[in-house]
Specification:
The chain is built from six helices and five strands; from the N terminus they run αββββααααβα. The chain is of the alpha+beta class. Strand 1 and strand 2 form a beta hairpin.
């Protein structure tokens, strides 16, 4: 059975890993990654499309300068993207976050195992926790970088607006606001750092104690009778 210290430390790390797993699920499931106001110029008037979307779906509404505002409708991101580059970027972000989700799940499993037992395999201990939490954090950071790239370089919001309303013509300007579904990925990274930090302190304390127990015999007091 593991010691109380190990149970407490790995139990804390398990909690942070589990929280990371839940937050990744929230980021994937919610559609508040981006809110955009995309303005288009027509022949006689200009049109503004308001978008709020995530990785899978979103909503869009159209308003015309003359004062007419159409009802808001729901769309699927993949169906609205005819541009191969933009669709590939979104697919890549989804795949990367799924890998991050799997890494977080494995890390949760490793920390839970160490909470209740002492695994024989070295990789199932702190090394495994370091590995999976690092991968989860790296995957999440890559997703955070790729999403703004898809907005700026692939004109994601413009493509989605044109997919909602096919008659839109010349794009004039866009205003973007990142939503909570995007920013909570920072929390995922911090949770993974917290998990690694907790296990590092446990591993460092265990190593120090082990080295202290293995001190050379010459460091023993001279008045000890050896034989």
């Amino acid at each position: 059975m593991p010691s109380r210290t190990k149970t407490a430390m790995f139990g804390s790390a398990f909690f942070t890993c589990l929280c990371s797993f839940v937050v990744i699920c929230v980021a994937l499931a919610t559609q508040h990654w981006m809110s955009s106001e995309v303005r288009f110029l027509g022949t006689n008037t200009s049109t503004t499309v308001s978008l709020t979307y995530g990785l899978f779906s979103g909503t869009c509404a159209q308003s015309i300068d003359a004062g007419l505002q159409l009802s808001r409708k729901t769309f699927t991101v993949a169906d609205n993207l005819s541009n191969t580059t933009a669709k590939s970027m979104i697919t890549a972000i989804i795949v990367i976050l799924v890998l991050s989700l799997l890494s977080s799940l494995l890390s949760s499993g490793f920390t839970c195992t160490n909470t209740v037992s002492n695994p024989y395999q070295t990789f199932l201990g702190p090394i495994g926790v370091y590995t999976w939490n690092s991968l989860c954090g790296i995957f999440t950071l890559i997703a955070m970088i790729l999403f703004p790239v898809s907005i700026e370089e692939s004109s994601l919001s413009v493509k989605l607006a044109q997919g909602c309303f096919a008659f839109l013509q010349t794009h004039e300007k866009s205003e973007h606001t990142y939503g909570y579904s995007y920013w909570i990925m920072l929390l995922i990274i911090f949770l993974n750092i917290a998990s690694i930090t907790i296990i590092y302190f446990y591993d460092h304390a265990r190593y120090s104690k082990k080295k202290e127990q293995e001190r050379p015999i010459e460091n023993a007091p001279k008045d000890v009778i050896l034989f």
